Amino acid sequence: MNNSHHVIDDDILGEILSFHSDDFKFIAMSCALVSKQWLKIVRERCKLSVICRNDRMVKGQFLQNIVTLKVENRDLSFKFDCKILELMKQLTVLDIHYNNLGSEDIKHISQLKKLRILDITANDFGNEGAKYISKMNQLTHLDMCGYLYPIDMGGAKYIGNMQQLRYLEISENEIGDEGAKSISQLNQLTTLLILSNNIGHIGAQYIGRMNQLTSLNISNNDIGVEGAKHIHSLKQLTYLY
Fold first, then answer.
1. Burial zone of 102 (CB within 10 Å; 0-12 exposed, 13-18 middle, 19+ buried)
2. InterPro entries from the entry (predicted)?
């Protein structure tokens, strides 16, 4: 009887595992335990997408394989331990909105050098947190709606230094006209959502100079007729609200 084992080619195995990239538990608790070959392929090739409710669900030896993480926290008394994020060196997308995060948590997030897309909506990090965010020079997409935890013009001044941004959602904050002036310095920005920010006609004048914008939501601000004229000058817009 022939007891030889058939070994799957590494490339084929890697492709098979890629179809399960959104099932962290299956990859970590099942596939990685099949054999040394499978473990090696998981470690070297798997790029994982994870949706979790707390940090207890993302502990283990494969954190460096996670490229996309969404934290769906349904317990407002619980706060995600952001220290663990520093082990996710390959993370490119992070959605951690509504998670009771403060400025120290944002400091840990700012260490993620490969992060491109970040959603930190409705977290109480304040202007100090905005300062840490502004150091993330690789970010191109940033969601930071304030809601109950708004930043003001000081925080907007930090965000206005992020010249690489293409998309910015900064609604429901209190940045005012001076904050709008800072945001208007983002010359690479093509999408801006800046509704409900205490912006008047002067702030609208600054936004009206952003000729690279293609999508703008400046609703629920008291820009008046004069401010509307400035926004109307943005002829390149394909979406305006």
1. middle
2. Leu-rich_rpt, LRR_dom_sf, LRRC69/RLP
All residues at 6 or more sequence positions from 88 whose CB lies less than 8 Å from its CB, including other chains: 63, 64, 66, 69, 112
Coil vs helix vs strand at 203: helix
DSSP code string of 116-169: -EEE-TT---HHHHHHHHTT-TT--EEE---TTS--BHHHHHHHTT-TT-SEEE
* 145-197 pLDDT tens trace: 999 899 999 999 999 999 999 999 999 999 999 999 999 999 999 999 999 99
How far, in Å, CA of 77 to CA of 54, rounded?
12
- CA 53, distance to chain mean position in Å, is 17
Sheet-wide strand order for 191-193: 48-52, 66-71, 93-95, 117-119, 141-143, 167-169, 191-193, 215-217, 239-240
Beta carbons within 10 angstroms of residue 77's beta carbon: 6
Provide the whole-model pTM.
0.83
CA distance 101 to 122: 9
From residue 166, give the alpha-carbon distance in Å to each of 138, 174, 190.
11, 21, 5
